[in-house]
Amino acid sequence: MAHQRTIVVTGSASGMGAATLKRLVANGDRVIGVDLHDADVVADLGTPEGRQSAVEAIQELSQGVLDGLVTFAGKGGLPNRAGSLLVAVNYFGTVKLLESLRPLLAKGTNSAAIAIASNSMTCQPGVPLDVVNLCLGDDEDGAHVAADTAGSIQTYPATKLAVTRWVRHHAPSPEWAGAGITLNVIAPGAVQTPLLKETQDDEILGPMLAAFPIPIGRNGTAEELAGVVAFLLGPDARFFCGSALIVDGGTEASLRADDLPSPMA
Ligand code: NAI
Known about the structure:
Helix content: 40-55%
Bound molecules: 1,4-dihydronicotinamide adenine dinucleotide
Strand content: 5-15%
């Protein structure tokens, strides 16, 4: 009998996380969903206690062995939302889970971890680099203060750039690549989910978002992104290590054609 994979999906109650859970379960995988509500593990990944309780519950449900982890849980930037919430959920809620669940992934079969960034990290001007550096320096309190100063709209791409850098720093290390765990990051563009709807409905951000070019002429669907995740979790993606996959209908290519790839000096 084929090995049944056990895969953790955070943010599993909505949007791309829910579409991914559905796709993996249909494929025969066992999925442990983590979210604030409607999940196998109900936990707030924005707090140290919530992250700890999530890790303990996952440890118990998986009996200490995982084959995959996908970290979708996240919040978007809005005019009246604190930047610190995004630092807490998007960055620390992601990397603390990656760190804590790495030993479980090391015991799995062809294990793969996938973090979720956003093309805003390279397509939205004015990213506050102090937030990025405080996150990567593991200074959560300092990052909260800097993010509240910057506001959540500017903090959003900072948390996603920090997650991407964390992934690219760690993926090639003995703890990840050396332990047989692939670690990569997907950076979606506009994908039609409740998170995007919040931005579309905002009277300031909505028109700005609508003005953003999407060369293929439409937003992405949660199911399309679930398909990319399924591929990265699968046997044909074992050569991916520390890759940042931009999946955005051409927005980044149309705005930054010559910036990537960037040749070595
Ligand atoms: P969504 O809002 O539909 O789903 C996000 C899920 O995360 C929700 O179920 C929510 O309850 C959960 N969540 C939020 N805070 C949490 C917390 N403190 N603890 C546990 N769970 C929490 O959003 P969507 O669009 O599916 O986004 C998924 C990820 O993709 C997010 O990280 C987002 O930043 C990212 N993304 C989304 C894009 C889009 O256009 N929709 C574009 C680029 C990136």
